[in-house]
Amino acid sequence: MSFKSTIEDLLRNYPPLFQFASKVYHKINGSFRTLSPGAPGAIRKSFEYILERDGAVSGDYYEFGLFRGYTFLQAWNHCKELKLADVNFYGFDSFEGLPAAEGIDQVDGRFFEGQFACSREEVEKNLAGEGVNLEKVTLVEGYYENALTDQLRQQHPFKPASVVLLDCDYYSSTVTALEWMDPYIQPGTILLFDDWFSYGESNELGQQKAYEEFLARHPEYKSDALWEFENHGKGFVLSAAQ
Ligand SMILES: C[S@@+](CC[C@H](N)C(=O)[O-])C[C@H]1O[C@@H](n2cnc3c(N)ncnc32)[C@H](O)[C@@H]1O
Hints:
Elements: H1 3-11, H2 15-28, H3 39-54, E1 60-64, H4 70-81, E2 89-93, H5 120-129, E3 137-141, H6 144-147, H7 150-155, E4 161-166, H8 171-181, E5 190-193, H9 206-217, E6 221-229, E7 233-240
Parallel strand pairs: 1-2, 1-4, 2-3, 4-5
Antiparallel strand pairs: 5-7, 6-7
S-adenosylmethionine binds at residues 34-36, 39, 65-67, 70-71, 93-94, 97-99, 116, 143-144, 167-170, 173.
């Protein structure tokens, strides 16, 4: 465990102090970086996996939880390097940080309203500054609970998903994202949960609970674990249940 994680774990016992320290830390450390060191590598491996399996990648890339956009940029870069010209890029965020924690997401003070806020303008500037053609990416702005509607489906030519990165911390956000993604998730889709081990091995909280419920609603899918990745992530591939 890193020095930073040890301090975070200690401070979490004092939520007001943790929230204050987290805000100060992100304000001082405003660099364009990822909060998820393993996510870019896991995305690369996912596209390589699909390429090897199918010989091509036709589905789109979806990322729920952008923060400053660094992981989204890496997804773009990986696809460019792998010459995956048919992949469209969709990113979903409030651009105001996390909503207030409710229900089981209030289990401790680790997540709080406004955490990881980064404006849409700043994310777009970050992406464009690294060479991303903003006309080729779609950023959907708003809290998922309001933004992920049936109407949204009509506004963009969403294709089935090749790779989905769920990096939205909360159980509730993951449930909402997976529900909206339902028509675009199919056998062969790779789902990367960046916050899989946020609560250790517990499947009663966070993303593990959200995915277990998704799979219970979808007996037509079989889910196979692929890889774990830093810090708390785990990836799965779906196939048709026999
Ligand atoms: C940990 S950060 C994402 C980190 C980013 N993928 C990276 O690699 O740096 C979590 C993000 O999820 C977004 N988020 C979580 N729940 C949300 C919700 N219900 N609606 C909109 N955005 C949400 C937050 O705004 C925040 O930007």
